[in-house]
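Appendix B. Raw example, untouched.
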Amino acid sequence: MDCIFCGLIREGTASWVARGPVACAFTPLNPLAPGHTLVVPTLHYADVFETPPEALAAVTALVQRVAGAARNALDASGVNILSASGPGSEQSVPHLHFHVVPRWADDGLSTWPAGRSAHRVTGDAGARIAEALA
C-alpha cells in the first residue's frame, strides 16, 4: 500500500502532536493556520464509511482533545474541523483524516463552502436518509 499517512506513521517521520495506539495527530506540511493539525487513525481506513466505530470514536476523541489544546495553547477563539470521505468529496488522501484548524476572529480565513451543490435528488433528502437509518 502506498498511503502517505501510513508511511508517516510507520516511519515515525511526521511532526507529531500526539501518538496513540488507535489515533495520532501531526502537523501538515502546508498548514492553513498556526496550529493546524491532522488527526488520523493509526491503521489504514480509507474513509468514514470503512472505519470501524471503535476506531472512529478514538479518532474523534483525539480531535476534541486537539481542538481544546489548540484553543488553550494558541488563544484561538474557535476551530474548524474538516473532513472529506469518498471520491465525490474532494478527499485528497484516501486515509481517514480530520483537519483541526484553529481560528481567530480576525484571521481572514474562510473554510466554509461559498456555493451550493448543483446535484438534485428526488423527494425529501432528510426523509430518505432517516429511512435508510431505520
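End of appendix B.
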